[in-house]
Amino acid sequence: MKRADNYADYLRLDVLLNAQTELSDPPHHDEMLFIIQHQTSELWMKLVIHEMRAAMAFIQADELESCFKILARIKHIQTQLLNQWSVLATLTPSEYAQFRHVLGSASGFQSPQYRTIEFLMGNKSERMLQMHEKKPAEFADLKATLEAPSIYDEFLRYLGRKGLPIPASHTERDWTKPYEMSEDVTKAICTIYENPADYWDEYEMCEKLIDVEEAFTLWRFRHMKTVERIIGYKTGTGGTAGVSYLKRIIEQQFFPELWHVRTLIKDVTFE
Prior knowledge:
Blueprint: H1 7-10, H2 13-16, H3 31-60, H4 65-88, H5 93-97, H6 112-121, H7 136-146, H8 151-161, H9 183-194, H10 200-231, H11 243-249, H12 256-264
Helix pairs in contact: 3-4, 3-6, 3-8, 4-10, 6-7, 9-12, 10-11
């Protein structure tokens, strides 16, 4: 069994704390903030992926209860990612303008981990693989995730195995295609919400998934407002549409039936 000699060696601080290389010349004071903000985001995203894959393995094994703590942890990780935007928001437009040019075509839009999270949550797009073609290992990992079921797909397959009427079109399909909302799936989710005592684990799982999607949407919103605050409506680095694009994706839903069911549930009346 390997054992660490000391704290710094165990955490590889020699590598971690020397991974911040400013490109502005002379170095601009605020470039360090920008680098650390994005590096720490990538570390948290690595943990989200680690936890989400574990949760999916439990769903595949029909062990929903084991997912609950994992999904709760993911929500708290997402809270860390959300709160980080308040630190970056201290960067003023004038300060960012002094070193933005060193980013060249680099953009957070190119993050393979962010794309992995989107694929794991069901926002599939084969077109998004193109920007990763020059890095074979990265491309292969993303392609495998694109071609596999998302966490919501796995949950629907679980519901089908448990006897709920999930259509075959949503338990065996081309996983590379974006998820499409189903009336039959909505009815099955309604059954769960109208009978929580009979479907407690499934009911709890639905709410845990809602927690994760809501946190992701809040992260996207805070991202959009931070970008708007710092660069306004300029074109994003890497040629993206910037704020206009970020506003559009806020409306995307990963688990549509879980949201739609809230409109359909009948209120309980007391006579």
